[in-house]
Amino acid sequence: MAGEADPRWAVQVDGLWERFRIAGDRPPTLKERLFTFRRAEYRQFEALKGVSLRIRHGESVALIGHNGSGKSTLLKCIAGILPADEGSVRVDGRLATLLELGAGFHPDLTGRENVYLNGAILGLTRREVDGSFAAIVDFAGVGEFIDTPVRNYSSGMYVRLGFAIAVHVDPDVLLVDEVLSVGDAAFQERSLARMRGFVERGKTVVLVSHDLGAVRALCRRTVVLDHGRLVFDGPTDDAIEAYEELVAGGAPPPEPEPDPVGPARTGDGGARIVDARLLPAVDGARPSGTTAQLVVSFTAEEAVREAGSLSLGIAVRRPDMALYVYETRTAWRGIYLAPPRPGATAAVTFTLDLAVLTGEYLVDLLLVNASTGVIHDRWQEALGFTVTSPEHDFGVAALDARIGVANPDGFWPAELHAPPPERGGPREHPLREDRPSPGHEPDVPRVDPALAR
Amino acid sequence: MAVRTTPPRTLLSSGELLRNLVAKELKVRYKGSALGFLWSLVTPLLLTGVFTVVFATFLRIPLGEGNFATFFLSGYLVWQFFSNSVNSAVGAIVGNGALIKKVWFPREVLPLSLVLSQGVHFGLALLATSPLFIWQRGVHLEAIPAILLGFLLLTAFTAGVAMVFAGLNVGFRDLQELTQVIFLAWFYLTPVIYPLYTVRESGAQWAVPFVLANPVTWFVELFHAALYGTPVAVGPNPPPHWPDATTWLVCSAWAVAALAVGTVLFRRWARTFAKEV
Ligand SMILES: Nc1ncnc2c1ncn2[C@@H]1O[C@H](COP(=O)(O)OP(=O)(O)OP(=O)(O)O)[C@@H](O)[C@H]1O
Ligand SMILES: [Mg+2]
Q: Which of A80, A303, B43, B149 is the most interior residue, by most CB within 10 Å?
């Protein structure tokens, strides 16, 4: 179990795993159970594989993904219907689920009796149902049928009544699974309006839907699930694009733009890079701000020794941003290299300050004739490395902001979350919502004590 | 605003839901039937008639100057409450799978609502047959508190057993069929058609511990005392009276134990009901 309860989040899911047992082909018969104690055979099925998700108060988030990707399972875990097998789920506030409308209706009872029964199942008191009864009947539009057993309802009326009860629970956190598409067009319009009302009143909404139109209309943020993993979390338009790519290709998660320069090795081979390594050698990521030495060794053929000096270049890229971060060549620094004798190897060391932020970096190498520009060896993606930086910054350059605040009212107490806009709170979320790696928002505001007065 | 880690509603705050579910059970049962509640009297009255003829007349269960019909009925109503409750509760979780998968609520309310609605039947049946008891056994107001308290203990015991059966049935679906068989045998192990003293005085002394180890025996004996009196072989049977201390003690112990064990086990199993139903 990770993480303390934190009232800034309406929903806090950390490293959630959900496993189901699927019965084997042949369940044991009673005789086998009693006499040979053969247990049923089960296969483990992982419906959620380490999902982490944080949702702010008042945020509306959509969950999309292919059939069986685990959307309903995640919603049920948030609702407390399914226990977390690993990880933790926390919800702050009164919660209501619209998972299946009219679950718990009894066909022999009248609409009125079912409203009270279903209300009680959803956690309403009799008085609360009394208070919204007229509104429920009105919203469902079942009119004079309210005192008829629901067995005589059309299937549309049935789910409309179920929907009407559920949306009158007035929760802080509303979980909706695939129910906006019930009923006729007019009812769908009204349900959508009702949901929008929820969002506008600052309620937290988690919506599962295959109706991408409804997703666009209701949620600015969307999460894409794929085979039980969270593969995208960001603005709805980007998420839908990622999801459509996923569906079209059946391919793994939305890779960023394909790299414009493919991995390749070209050149006339008159001189050749034989080795390139980054020292010190580390397993995994290098901390931002440390230094590293890029050691490149090369050989040359006899013919090249006549042709003039060589220049060795390096280029560092961020492929996910299609960005050249840094490039240099020995010649640019006034260093011209004599081609080594055949059989001998020359080595050049570049000492680099890794003043960059979290990300994957690739290094391209280039060995050219300094005067003619003839390319002897161009080695794309000769090596790569990973950098991690503190989680509160995002981008490429480690500009490392120090923050000074001049505000007579001081800081917002950490234990409170900001009020909604209509009560003077911030208009926008203070943090970017489209960060590529979700779940890494800073836990404390980073303030330079020297500047904070 | 409170931060919750578990679903916020407990059984205590679900009284409303429990009340609604009991009302549903009762309404559904009697909706559209002309005789309504009287139907639930048909079985005990018919059996009373049949057993009175068979056991009191043909087989001659010795009851002295007592009355077999009221003796049988006072025990059978207890048995019927217990048996109907557990037999309906055993499928309560599996049968409500759709609901359990979609909504969170304390799962205990499902078996408990069935037990409580059977409790309502029990109460109504007692009221409906009270003229028979008064006619045959006389008015004994001092027995009324014993009936109420005994009913409380019986309900607690039944609720515990019902929860265990309902929970076990999720992993072991055969239990539903098995329960009917178990209860058929259990019935004959309970002194409903025969007075307990006939076992003690019979040649089969080995059977006594079995009958006494059966908790339902004690509840039946409690109601025999409070509703019928003391069955004896010869002479007048003593009228209804306050049950003795041993009976109270044993019934209380069974009630507390069953309710505690049932609740603990059921709560533990309930976490994964939504996965397995
Ligand atoms: N009770 C269960 N027992 C076994 N497997 C289950 C159970 N519930 C869900 N699963 C499996 O978990 C996976 C995820 O199911 P889930 O219902 O969350 O998918 P979904 O994303 O909601 O799909 P859909 O878009 O079809 O609604 C599926 O492969 C499903 O078979
Ligand atoms: Mg689903």
A: A80
Cα A354 to ligand 2 centroid, rounded to whole Å: 45
ipTM for the complex shown: 0.80
Tell me how far the alpha carbon of residue A67 lies from the centroid of ligand 2, in angstroms.
7
CA distance A315 to chain B (A): 50
When mean pLDDT is compared across A184-188, A319-323, B7-11, the lowest value belongs to B7-11
B275 contacts chain A (CB < 8 A): yes
Beta pairing class for A60-65 and A221-226: parallel
- Is B4 touching A (CB cutoff 8 A)? yes
A380-419, pLDDT tens digit by residue?
A: 888 889 998 877 777 888 888 888 888 887 777 655 666 6
Q: 0.80 exceeded by the pTM?
A: no
Backbone φ, ψ for residue A354 (5° rounding): -85, 65
Please list every residue in chain A whose beta carbon sits closer than 8 Å to the beta carbon of residue B3: 5-7, 90, 92
- With a 6 Å cutoff on the Cβ, whether A171 touches ligand 1 is no
Question: Is there a domain that residue B8 lies in?
Answer: no
CATH architecture of the domain covering A265-388: Distorted Sandwich (2.70)
Write the pLDDT tens digit of every residue in A148-183: 888 888 878 888 888 888 888 878 888 888 776 666
Residue extents of the structural domains in chain A: 265-388, 405-453
Q: Cα–Cα–Cα angle for B25, B28, B32, nearest 5°?
A: 150
Distance from residue B269's CA to the centre of ligand 2 (Å): 25
Q: Is A260 helix (H, G, I), strand (E, B) or coil?
A: coil
Mutation pick from B275, B276, B277 vs chain A, by most beta carbons of A within 10 Å, is B275
Residue at B165 is within a domain: yes
How many helices (H) and strands (E) chain B has is answered by 13, 1
Does pLDDT of B142 surpass 50? yes
